[in-house]
Structures are given as structure tokens and as C-alpha cells.
Design brief:
The chain has helices spanning about 5-20, 25-35, 50-55, 65-75, 80-95, 100-110, 115, 120-130, 140-145, 155-165, 170-175, 185-195, 195-200, 205-220, 295-305, 310-325, 330-345, 365-370, 410-425, 445-460, and strands at about 220-230, 235-240, 250-255, 260-265, 270-275, 285, 355-360, 380-385, 390-395, 405, 410, 430-435. It is α+β, with helices and mostly antiparallel strands. The chain folds into 3 domains: about 5-95; about 100-240, no CATH class; about 250-460, no CATH class. Helix 1 packs across helix 4 (about 65-75) and helix 8 packs antiparallel against helix 12. The longest helix is centred in the C-terminal third of the chain and has 18 residues, at about 445-460.
Length: about 475
Amino acid sequence: MVDSRDRSTLRALVGEAVLGLGGLTHRQLTPVFEQLGMPPVPEEAGTKRERIEQSFSQVPDAELPQLTRGVLEQGHFHVSPSTRHRLEDLLWQEGAPLEIPKKVRRELARSLDLTQLARYRDPFLRLLDRFWITEELGPSIADLLNGRRPVTLRDRIERHVFRNPGDWSAEELFEELGVFNAGDARFGRFLEGLVSADVLLDETLQMETVRTVNGPLRTAGIELRLTGNDGGYPLFTLVSTLLYGNQRPKNIIFASFGKPDIRFRSSVDNDIEIVGGRRDDTLVYDREIPTEGLRWRDLHAWWQEARHISSESDARTDLYQRLLKVIPRNSEGQKNLFIAYHKILGPSPEDPALLPEVWLHWDHKTVQERGPEALLRSRMDFLLLLPQGQRVVLEVDGSQHFTRDRGRTPDTAKYADMVAADRDLKLRGYEVFRFGHDELKDLGAAQVLLRQFLPDMFRRFRVSI
């Protein structure tokens, strides 16, 4: 979660940066406001500064991160390296980064061979320039009197790392850069960059460096894990080792109108098929789940190809209607949650896909053969597959979850089963969030609730939307 003081600091810094738009003309300001997601202000509303201040004052806190990204990425702004770093730190902090203690950082630095890290000079220097302030230094009085250019940290790195290799250790370089006192998000991103193919340019060297780094990291419950590839080279991401079963699912069985009848075509390949019923009664997503989680773009592309739909927009609409149809008719709360999720986030293909009626496991034997336990704790109302293998379950609880006789009599046994199911899911690596049906009894209430809940949840799981 983001501290309110951090959000106030972010607003102040971004507010200073957007005043740089004053160099544009009145006519140019209008499309730039639109590009940045700032509310429009007509030209007749005042001076350029007044228009900028009025527009910025209308930007809600929830949209500040998006505006900050625009300030950092678009060419309308000239922010100093120190201001850029402060903005980045505040923005990245929104993603709840993994905590890496100072002691672990120092032990990690002592284990590294700087000559190996800096084997490829230009990529290494670009990485340092990306994450650390290496050249922002004002001239000293002596420099001014003698007309000399000030000596920057970049100059000293050139001297002690490249011209005189062995002068500095990795620990000394990290000390000069300020690595040990940097925010967790900056340090984590720097570490991922340090072992990337863009810097090391050699797969063997990548693997050796990752093994070295993971020794100290694992004492903090963190490791660099192979999560994909970058042009054929391994791609490593920081993940928590404390999350149970932090791995990618093989098949997602969802949007089922009933308990699916499943069999393995190949147990070696985990290749399954649904037998019985109509072809569309149960959906099985069997593609690889990306490192950044399952997004709507992935699900739309799969649906478009599987159903041979020529238009991408038609595929989106068709899939939405198919998923909406499977939500139980007697659960207005589930339906409102699903619709509100789409209304709030819009049709963005980059947002996490919300999967309804997902089967955690199944039992091929019937209730008569296995007993009532065959159906317990097997289905989730909604599932989100988020970055780095994080799994979030959303459940909507009506009175049937804790009463019998159509809601007339409390049923402690039902309630006990429900909380036992939650414990089981959490031990399997799922985070469970429950909603009371009355919270979602109408679409308006659902939208109000989710407008507050979704941004908080996505920040908690480091999801950019």
C-alpha cells in the first residue's frame, strides 16, 4: 500500500514537472492534456499556467501513477536526474516491491566479481546510467576558478573500473552508486538488469552470476528465477520463495456449466480432454501463462483462434458473453462483480483476465462412489493469474454459505467447511478475498466497492493497469 505522504509528495513533484508544459502554445496544450490523461481545460480559461494548474488539480490520486509515467516517458518534460529518480521511486513503490535488507545487499555485493559484471563496458554503463545518478554534479569553486569540468561519478567509474580494473570491488562501486540505501524497487530492478542478456551478453555468464546472487538473496526468501526468454537468452525475475508452489498452471479449466468430466489423453504431457456434454460446456485454456500473468489479450487471442473468429473485436464480445452466461442465475452478486470489473477497467487487453467458475481439482468418481467430499472445495467463483505466479481468488458469499433451510437456520458446519477451504487454498499458494452478497446486491454498489478495492489489490500484487 502507498503511504498518503508518498502520494502527496508524488503530487507535488508531478505538479512541478507539468508546469514545464508552459513552453507549449495554447493550441498544443489541448492534445497534450489528452495524451497524458489530464482533464481538458478550454483556451479561454486563462493563461497557459492557469490552464495547466486547473487541469492538474482535477487529476484524482488514483490516476497520478499513470500521469507520472507520462511525465517520465514523453518528450514534453525536462526533469533533472534527481527528480526523475524520486518520481520513479514513488511510482515503483506502488507495486509493493520485495524487501531486500541492507545486509543481504552488502553480502551479495561482496560475492560478485566486478570485472565479470563489467566485461561489456557500454551495456554496463547504460545500466548504471539508467538506475543511478552518475553525472549530475555541480562544479566546485576550484573548478569554476580554474575553468575545469567537474569530475563526475561517471568519470570515476571509467577510471577505477575500466582504465584501472581492480581498483574498486563490486561492494565499493555499489557504495559509490548508493545501492545499499536505495529503495527496494530500484534495487530489485537493477539486479534484474544486472543479470540480463542486455548487460552480460553471454548465457553462461548470466547463469553463473544468477547462482552467485541467489546465495545471499535466498536468506531473505527471494531469488532470481528463470521466467522466460529474451531473444533466446534466459530472462530472470525476482520472486518470493515464500509463496507456496510458485509455478505456472498447466491447464485452466473454467467457465463450466457443471462439474466437468475430464480424462488424460497423455499423462506425460498433461494433455487433457473434456468428455461428454456439449463442446462449449467447459473451457480449457492450455497455453503457457506469461510471466506477467494472464491478461485479456492472451485470452482474446486464444478464443479468436480456437473459435476461428476473424475480427478481434468480435472475439472479445463473443468471449465476454460466453463468460457472463456461465455465472449462476441465482447469484446476482457474482454477475454484478463480473460486469463491474469490466466497466471499471474497460476493454483494455493489458488488464488481468477475470476467469469465472474455475475448477481447482476434479474427481472422476461420482458422489455415490466417493461420497459428498467429492464435490467439496473444488470450484472458485473467480480466479486472477497475476505476475510471477501469484494467484488471487474472489469469492461471493450468499446466505447459502452459512445457513440451511433456504437461509432460515444458521449452519456452523457449512461455515466450518468454507473457512477450511480457504485455509486449503492459501496453503496451495492462492490468496482469497471474500465479498458478501449484499455488498454486490446491485451493479451500482458493486462498482463503488470495486473502484476502491481493485487499485488497492493490484498495488498489493504489483500489477500495473
